[in-house]
Design goal:
The chain is α+β, with helices and mostly antiparallel strands and about 170 residues long. The protein is about 25% helix and about 40% strand. The strands form 2 sheets. Strands 3, 4, 5, 6, 7, 8, 9 and 10 form an 8-stranded antiparallel beta sheet that branches. It is globular.
Amino acid sequence: MRTAFLLLLILQLTPPPSPVSPPVRGDRFEIVVPQGWKTLNEGGFVLLEHSSGASLLIQRITRPANLPDYAQHQAERVMLPLGFATLGEPRSFKEGKDEWVQYEIRGNRLTAHRRILYRVLRRDTSFFEVIYEAGEDGFDALLTDAQEIASSVQSIIEAPPVRRRRR
């Protein structure tokens, strides 16, 4: 009787498991999205927005011939619409089967100071582009979230659609 009471007490004191949001799917990939982020688009590419106004875009890309050259070219493309934009030095990482190149971009959108983290990621045989943008003052606060979301990218193997024969 006493052990049943203790077991019941322990079960009542144990916090319920935290809700896990279902993964968000893109073009043959999925990501995990933490609380505070809202999915604006899913399907081909995934576009997320944080309640603070920060945004995160993740999309699958075709295999680039040279990862560092591709990353530099695309980072320069991303910074074009910004006023007084500066492109930081490239940072390259390799970890197991993952490899990525990233750039930090600073610039202005109208009167708002913005920071952008541009990253090209190779995971196994898949390639992804990640663009995280936030205001200058809130960039660091959500950087860990953005990096965790980008790190959660998992390729999905989908079977090709079934073709029906014409009669």
